[in-house]
Every structure is written in C-alpha cells, then in structure tokens.
Amino acid sequence: MSFIFLLPLIAFAIYAQTMVSKTFNKYLRVSSAKGITGYDAARRILDAHGLQDVKIERIGGKLSDHYDPRTRVVRLSDAVYSNASIASVSVGAHEVGHAIQHDEGYVPLNFRSFLAPVASFGSKYVMILVFAGVIFDMLHLIELGILFYSLALLFQIVTLPVEFNASSRAIANLEDLNLVYEDEIVQSKKVLNAAAMTYVAATAVSAGQLLRLILLRNSRR
After folding, report:
1. Domain range annotation of the chain
2. CB contact at 8 A, 65 and 57
3. Among the options 57, 95, 182, 184, which is catalytic?
4. In the predicted model, is pLDDT for residue 1 greater than 70?
5. Catalytic annotation on 95?
6. What is the Cα Rg of the chain in Å?
C-alpha cells in the first residue's frame, strides 16, 4: 500500500524531468537576440558583482551545469557554455546566482553545504542499513537508516530555497545588466521554473520514501 502511495510522486518526478528536458531543448533553439552565450552572461554577471576571481569552466554532459563552492568555479555544459540561446543564457545566469550566494554568505547555501557529506552517505547506504535490519531482525539498523535518510531529505528541502533564490537572482541580473530583451525574460523564467520543478518533485518522492521506511519500521516492532 505504501508503494502505491509513492507511485503518483514517482509519476510527478518523471513528468518534471521530462518537462525540464523539453523546455531546455525548446529554448536551446531560440537564439538570444543580443547574441550572448551562456559563458558571456555568466562572466558579465560575475564581473558586475566583483567576482572576477570566480572561474568558469566547460564540462561535458547535458544539464550538468553547477557551481562548486569548494573551488569557486562555475561549470557550464557544452550546450550552455558556447551557445547563444535563451536556455544557455538563463542557465548560465542561474549557476552564477549560486556563486553570488556563496560570496554573500547566503545561509541556506551554507547549511546545505554543511549537510552535504551526511546527505551523500545517507543516500548511498540507507537501503543497505534497512535491508540488513530486516534480514537480521535488527530494528536499530532500520532506525539508523531512517535517521540518515531524514538528513538526506532535509538536504533536499534546504536545496529548494537555494535553487529558487538563484533563479530569482538570475532573472534580476539578466534584467539589470540588460543582457536580454524584456520579452525574452518570460522565456528565461519558463526555463528556470521547469528546472526548479525537478527539485520539488525529487523532494516529494524522498518524503514519500521516508514515510515508507517509517511504516516498515512500525510494522517490525
């Protein structure tokens, strides 16, 4: 029954992932009227905020763009780095938003970084702990798995304001620095909103999975 409860959340996550891919691909084909690439947008925003020391690197993969706070490097995928499209400019501006958050000491970002090691451990080993607890009838292993998974879920919850704030900063910077025309802002918002929805869906699925683990724990008592 708990798995059936989880199915709509999984369907939502699949839908969100499909939409972000579809939206990104759509606006990857829509050229920026000013001919600005994702790299150009990212570099101009960084420089405008006095972050000339933050580097921008090119990486492979699709939608693999991210900001690394440990090395202070913005990494942009091939499709974003050199492409002069609405999608590329929007994603580039979004990732720079994280660099600005880091520079300003944005509390949710710092908290997420603090949780990252434990969340990573929880995501990798929680099912091993739970499975071992079921096989060997050791309730404390299941409860330990629930604890680690709860911390992983907390990491995802904290990620939500971090991502939404980075998108808000991206739109504001695109407007303030006049990097895109006014009618293109609406398109940029569509790209970033679709991406944000994947985080919401992933958090919902994790919350449902945590509920399943709690129900499992209760049934073993």
Report:
1. 2-220
2. no
3. 95
4. no
5. yes
6. 20
